[in-house]
Amino acid sequence: MGLVLLLAVVARRRWPGQKELSRKLVHIGTGPVLPLAWWLQIPAALAVPIATAITVVALINHRWRWLPAVEDVDRNSYGTVAYGLAITTLLLLFWPHQPQAACAGVLVMAAGDGLAGLIGRATHTPHWQIWGQTKSVAGTLTMAAVSLTVLAMLAWVAPESPGLAGLLAISLLATGLEQLSPWGIDNLTVPLTVGLSWPWFST
């Protein structure tokens, strides 16, 4: 996480006009933390307090902007706080007995939503607004494709995982929820829905 924050600060200084870039680096870079914790067999007694502490720090930073690279975007968003809350909740629900479910929720949000935001802003495709948030064909397709890819890769290594129909259903759910993102609430709804859907669709 220290390395991720450092990259975000460097990106902010290198491209000061691209405020979304540094935030997305933190967003995407957080994703591999849970698979790494799974591989290292980090116990819940350690993982949950750390996730809780990071969420509290994110809430404080949202209020006082100590790290502008994380929060300084051109809209009112509680996404970083919601993201931390989602990770903490997934750990409470699934760690360590079903780590693949927690990883599914975090990885879809990190990779799918993170890349969708970057690609959607960088390309010129038809777009629309939902609750004041701009969405695009490029961003939506990226969210769907990356979510399905990430889930398929996780299913390949997980002991219990959904079949192809389940993976498609979860990807579509995540993509649909990502459309509803005022104040960054998709950072909470997408990971939790994906995490809860994983065992439900598992065979």
Query: Unreliable segments (pLDDT under 50, ≥5 consecutive)?
Result: none
Query: What spatial order of strands do you see in the largest sheet?
Result: 1-2
The helix/strand class is mainly alpha
Strands, total number: 2
- How would you sum up the major sheet? 2 strands, antiparallel
Query: Residue share in helices?
Result: over 70%
Mean pLDDT: 87
CA gyration radius, whole angstroms: 16 Å
Oligomerization status of the protein chains: single chain
Global outline: globular
Q: Tell me what portion of residues adopts beta-strand conformation.
A: under 5%
Label this structure with key terms.
mainly alpha; two-stranded antiparallel ribbon; 10 helices
Task: Produce a short descriptive summary.
By secondary structure, this protein is mainly alpha-helical.
Task: Reconstruct the topology from this structure.
Layout: H1 2-14, H2 19-29, H3 33-40, H4 44-64, H5 68-71, H6 79-94, H7 99-122, E1 127-130, E2 133-136, H8 137-157, H9 164-178, H10 186-201
Antiparallel strand pairs: 1-2
Helix pairs in contact: 1-2, 2-7, 4-6, 6-7, 6-10, 7-8, 7-10, 8-9, 9-10
Q: How is this structure best described in words?
A:
The chain is mostly helical and 203 residues long. It has a domain of 141 residues. Helices cover 73% and strands 4% of the residues. The protein is built from ten helices and two strands, in the order αααααααββααα. A two-stranded antiparallel ribbon has the order 1-2. α1 packs antiparallel against α2 and α4 runs antiparallel to α6. The radius of gyration is 16 Å and the shape is globular. The mean pLDDT is 87.
